[in-house]
Amino acid sequence: MQWQSVLEFIHRKLRTTNLYKEFNNKQNEHEVMALMMSNDIVGELLTLWLEKQSELKIQKCSKKAKSFKNEGNEFFKKKNYLTSVELYTTSAKYAIFDNGDYSISLANRSAALFHMGEYESCLEDIDVALASNYPTELRPKLHLRAAQCWIKLYDASRADEQLTEAQNLITIDENISADDRENVMRNIGKLTMEMNELLEQKVRKFPDVIKWSPEDLLPPNPMYSSASSVLTRDYSPTRGRYVKTKSAIKRGDVLYVEKPFAFVTLDHVVSNLICVHCCNHIANTGYPCRGCPHVLYCSKKCWSISWLSYHKWECVGYEMSIWKQIGIAHLAVKVFFSSIEIHDNTKFNEVQKLVTNIDKLSTDDLIIYSITARMLVQYLEVYTNVLSTIDMKKCLVDKFMNEEFTISSDVSCHEGKKLFVGTLLLRHMLQLIANGHAITRLNLTDAEGANIFEEQQQRVAVGIYPSVSMMNHSCDPNIMNTFWNDYLIVKAVRNIPAGGEIFNCYGPHFRRMGLKERQDALKNQYCFTCQCEPCTDPELQHFLDRFDALKCLNCAGPLSDVDLNSFKCLNCNLICTADVKNRADDLNNATTLFNLAQDFMQQGKNDEALDHLERCLKIRQKWLFKYHDDLTITYDSLGKVCVAMSQWCDSISYLETSILAVEEKFGLDSIEVANELNKITDICIQYLQRTPDRKSSSYRDIGKKTQRFLRRAEKIMSMISGPWSEAYQEISNKERELSGMLQSLRI
């Protein structure tokens, strides 16, 4: 049975008991959890569910590991190294750690990587294999491979270290056969000669790559962790805690660089592409968990640190498929684990101070969250050793610096520990409802039937950022959030005067969501009624209406509904009536034409798609305001189908018109405009690459236009993000590519 069904069943059962009434009088998380932990029936039901999940565990499997390894070996023999790398990775995913299978899969992968010229990755695989119970008698071969890598990287000193290690092993290990010993010695001699040649040539090794850290963007701020020194926290009865400036801030200034206190990846199609420890992208050489087949890491460092600090306690939960069923509660557990491990008491207490809104929650919500907290306590008690091995007083209780947030439980006894942990877990769950922050990555999707990519921000994880959480909400924020792996980097998107408040957006933005929808969303999740400018200024309250408006026949401005048959122009104030039936029939026909065009594009019938879209456009231009969303997507679709038909100039023209609407809706310097500029330059560059007549005026004009588009896109991306952004890097690469093309043509 799925967790949600169990949760609802227990909740219904509790509604019929006196316990339900008692929840109404509880003032804090400790009282709520004390009541929930006292109910034996709840405990028994949770025990049954956890036992069932344990029976259904998805674990490592030697048979699968061996099958994938053997398949990888076959592709390796065929010199299809890339496929063999993928298969060895999958083999390691299912391989058991203790018997050496895991290390052998990675050792095999290192061989494929060596042949691919991926020497740094090969060396990292060798390091992990050697740290993972790799058979002693096979270790000399790995050290020889490592020596080969260092020779390829022109580092004779490190190559010599590996050769010495190989020689020492064959000297002391009696399990190595005479033939193998002779073979290793022969290879040592050969590699020693190569190394000596390297030394004689005095070839310099490749310089170590200087690693950039996001924390270099801001100096440390002891008064406000992870924040710029120009920011300070304040308090008022109406605003609560908020952030303001001590001096004027310019657009583009970095305001925060914060690593999350904890985060968890979301369970969807890209989960296996994201490192669960640092949120970095994982290439073909991910490192599977040593205990479960569900988690991948991007490096040896993340693989090692994760296990030692928290994954040893959550690993079984992955096998039991718990985490993907409980939503934000998984992050609450991760916050708990991070709280145990952290040595910075200030950061620990910053998390404890985050609001829970417990006084604003309904009794039903409190019961549901406390049931989940109790289930997690029982998981930790039965399926991990955290309650029996961790000194709760030293690792948690003694870290509290403010009695207001201290939890009154006797952690010297087992039941007291359970209540203490349950209280913390409930607190973190409630905090995360109001303070959890989505972590996003740029996702490139191939447009249907066209050789162009569309960029979308995709949520890949959710984390807790205590310093950034101090900002209040506005539906028109003055900051922009970007990510470098799990680091949240916040920049100002407007000039902000000294003493001005810094506003984040909690999700509902006035350029993307209507007034009522925003107000309801904020009230339901964050328990407040927004009073920001877009929510109170009459001119901004209905901002989105113009992008869903009919066209004024007098001035072509947007019409606002007065009643069913009459409209008022928002530009010229003319009151007019419309032929409702003809308008509705025409627009319904346009929708039909548009949908058919999409079908034709998917089928590769581009001529039919173009015809239908042109007819659709004519109707929509007649009735709709020029920035209507339906017109914008029509221009965009026309741009795509023209690309598929190699009608580059027409495509560029349509997309330029589409960009005008995006500018009007999202702002001239918005990420949406930058993404559209990035997209249109894909088409411009395709035109410049594929058009044979490179001396024509149109070729020259589009070359210059592409330069302008890219410069503008780079300017926007520099202001709202920076070189760490994938979109910024893509734009910079295209600028270099274009510069080379145009220089050769002297444009």
Keywords:
three-stranded antiparallel beta sheet, 747 residues, 28 helices, cytoplasm, methyltransferase, Serine Threonine Protein Phosphatase 5, Tetratricopeptide repeat, SET-MYND_domain_protein, nucleus
Specify the biggest β-sheet. 3 strands, antiparallel
Structural class: mainly alpha
Average pLDDT rating: 91
Q: How many individual domains?
A: 3
The helicity comes to 40-55%
Q: What overall geometry do the principal axes of the alpha carbons give?
A: globular
Number of strands: 15
The separation of the N and C termini measures 67 Å
Rg, nearest Å: 31 Å
Quaternary structure state of the chains depicted:
single chain
3D structure, described in words:
It is found in: Cytoplasm; Nucleus. Residues 228-507 form the SET domain. It is a single chain. With 747 residues, the protein is mainly alpha-helical. The chain folds into 3 domains: 1-56 and 286-433, no CATH class; 62-201, Serine Threonine Protein Phosphatase 5, Tetratricopeptide repeat; 559-744, Alpha Horseshoe (Serine Threonine Protein Phosphatase 5, Tetratricopeptide repeat). It is built from 28 helices and 15 strands. It is globular, with a radius of gyration of 31 Å. The N and C termini lie far apart (67 Å). Mean pLDDT is 91; it is low at 446-450.
